[in-house]
Amino acid sequence: MENILRDKVDQFRKKIKGKIVLPDDPNYDQLRQIWNAMIDRRPAIIVQCSDSDDVSQALSFARENKLEISVRGAGHNIAGNSLCDDGIVIDLSTMKNVRVDAGKKRAYVQPGATLGDFDAAAQAHGLATPVGINSITGISGLTLGGGFGWLTRQYGMTVDNLISAEVITADGKKMRASKKENADLFWAIRGGGGNFGVVTEFEFQLHPVGPEVFAGLIVFPFEQTKSVLKQYREFIAQAPEELNVFVVLRQAPPLPFLPENVHGKKVVILALFHPGDQARGEKMADALRSFGDPYGEHIGMMPYVQWQQAFDPLLTSGVRNYWKSHNFTELEDGFFDTIIEYTNKLPSSQCELFIALLAGSANRVPANAMAYGNRNAKFLLNVHGRWDKEADDVTCITWARDLFKATAPYESDGVYINFMTEEEGSRVSSAYGSNYERLKQIKKKYDPENLFHMNQNIAP
Ligand SMILES: Cc1cc2nc3c(=O)[nH]c(=O)nc-3n(C[C@H](O)[C@H](O)[C@H](O)COP(=O)(O)OP(=O)(O)OC[C@H]3O[C@@H](n4cnc5c(N)ncnc54)[C@H](O)[C@@H]3O)c2cc1C
């Protein structure tokens, strides 16, 4: 394949401003690495696009040469769909510009920006919009799948804050998608993933946040988990929506505020976020502390951008990962018993169970308002299998799958597509529920040949 394409690649190189990287390039191995070390693929060609015209040219080249296509934002997706074998990677990771119009409270974001890039630019004006909790995640994949984070209870999903996007469709055309222009495409990209084209710019609504917020961790002994979780459930049901609290079950990392003899012990952690009022934040923290006898805590006022990076050390790239996820409208006692049982069997020091709280603004959007339709999801469980050695693959994956099965009786419908590691049979269609048929119709219109299928695929 390489030889057949060489001449054509030389021609293509002349048409774009970005870089073409081939397997014999010294950077090739570095550029084909993504966050999840389980994914090891060898594309025939990586195109580091520098603008939307490059994207359009790359798509033409791929079509003409019948190449498999994958699209890479920041390469953070757990399923690893941003990399293909033998095909072309449309790599957007150097298109990272974020422009903020503080007067209009809008951000115009290129698709290679990470959450860290985005937060830094918006926070320079004391602004933000809901995005995820790990700053090296890409804005692109996160937004196209839905997107949630600490601000979601107050301001909804990331897609609820998307105003418009520039999209290069499968035929290479540049289109604007918004409520007024190509409204069907706009409906579909707000949750439908990379199925409908390559987004080359996102326009977001911003909100005043921080720049200082009240946030931190309270760490309880594992023996107190059931009691902590029951009190959490009651407290959250009446807590104000600006407060967000996620729960993590895992072995205690060597955090400096924990006594050394706690490091490595199983713990339950409450991670709390309150946007900026110390007195009210302290009141919330007092209530959470009273759920048990904490081993320790690290809580206080800090820059929002700092809190947005707080989990980065536990979520570095280059480690093996396998995830499973459920949505929940209620947290039942049986669910608590099951997750406690499986935390007792954690197969590695890095595996964890993560419960995110979504209840609030995101639940008030009608399920058919856009492709992302999991509007009754108030909580989300991420079974995060994570480990270092290939030899541990089977043990860790089996643990994640078993836990996923054991918690299935308590789930509500739908699933967050951004947390799916692999094709799970009919799970893509159930992720979209009653929106799935409309998505198929829109796919037929914009990508009838399913050129974009390296994703949680919606076949036309
Ligand atoms: C450690 C970690 C923490 C996370 N935390 C959160 C969280 O708090 N909240 C949350 O909502 N999600 C979270 N996620 C999930 C995250 O939203 C997805 O992994 C997301 O896909 C990452 O985006 P990316 O651009 O880096 O992905 P990539 O791997 O680059 O892309 C993923 C897929 O998206 C599509 N795609 C990417 N860019 C484009 C584009 N510009 N146009 C068209 N299609 C495109 C392609 O199909 C591609 O295969 C987390 C993931 C990880 C690994």
Provide a compact summary of the structure.
It is built from 14 helices and 18 strands. By secondary structure, it is of the alpha+beta class.
Features:
460 residues; alpha+beta; 7-stranded antiparallel sheet; 5-stranded antiparallel sheet; globular; binds flavin-adenine dinucleotide
Protein model, in words:
This protein has helices spanning 2-15, 28-31, 52-64, 115-123, 139-145, 152-155, 183-189, 225-238, 278-289, 304-307, 333-343, 393-407, 427-432, 436-446, and strands spanning 19-21, 45-48, 69-72, 88-91, 98-101, 106-109, 127-128, 162-168, 174-178, 198-205, 207-208, 212-221, 244-251, 266-274, 296-303, 320-328, 352-357, 379-387. It has 14 helices and 18 strands. Helix 8 packs across helix 11 (333-343) and helix 11 packs antiparallel against helix 12. The chain starts with a helix and ends in a 14-residue tail after the last helix. It has 460 residues and is an alpha+beta fold. Residues 35, 70-78, 81-82, 92, 111, 132-134, 137-138, 140-142, 144-145, 147-149, 193-194, 198-199, 315, 418, 454-455 line the site of flavin-adenine dinucleotide.
Mind sketching the topology for me?
Layout: H1 2-15, E1 19-21, H2 28-31, E2 45-48, H3 52-64, E3 69-72, E4 88-91, E5 98-101, E6 106-109, H4 115-123, E7 127-128, H5 139-145, H6 152-155, E8 162-168, E9 174-178, H7 183-189, E10 198-205, E11 207-208, E12 212-221, H8 225-238, E13 244-251, E14 266-274, H9 278-289, E15 296-303, H10 304-307, E16 320-328, H11 333-343, E17 352-357, E18 379-387, H12 393-407, H13 427-432, H14 436-446
Parallel strand pairs: 2-4, 3-4
Antiparallel strand pairs: 1-2, 5-6, 6-10, 7-11, 8-9, 8-10, 12-14, 12-15, 13-14, 13-17, 16-18, 17-18
Helix pairs in contact: 8-11, 11-12
Bound molecules: flavin-adenine dinucleotide (FAD).
Flavin-adenine dinucleotide binds next to strand 3, helix 5 and strand 10.
